[in-house]
Design a protein that fits this description.
The protein has about 150 residues and is mainly α. About 35% of the residues lie in helices and about 5% in strands. GO terms for molecular function: hydrolase activity, acting on ester bonds.
Amino acid sequence: MLMASSSTFTHFLMVLLFLLAFGSIASLADARALFIFGDSLVDSGNNNYLTTTARADAPPYGIDYPTRRPTGRFSNGLNIPDLIGQKIGLSESPLPCLSPEFNGKKLLIGANFASAGVGILNDTGVQFVSQSAAKQPHHYFINTASVVTL
């Protein structure tokens, strides 16, 4: 009984800390760019531009998205970065860094570097013919650097 109570308290404390942290992030008036790294939970469509079987560019994905079309997000609508972006006042969600629409002005809003199937180890995601997190940033950095004009 004591263990269950301790576990419940720990979960409650974690949720409370998350809400407090999220509330303080959302109240920052100067926060205007969002840069996202991760896997399918936060991928907004980078895998649409990669040779991989981990794709979300066909129905039923996107059925609850504002356009009612698949976007490459592994959800039926908005994903976590979309919701955080709305909360901090971004005019739009950061584009996938591999998107042809991604340019220097869009970089001011932020960029999504997430890719479904990516993992820390080189062997992670090999069944998706994806890439490791160790190789992903370099590939995406080259693409992002090419859109920045000084």
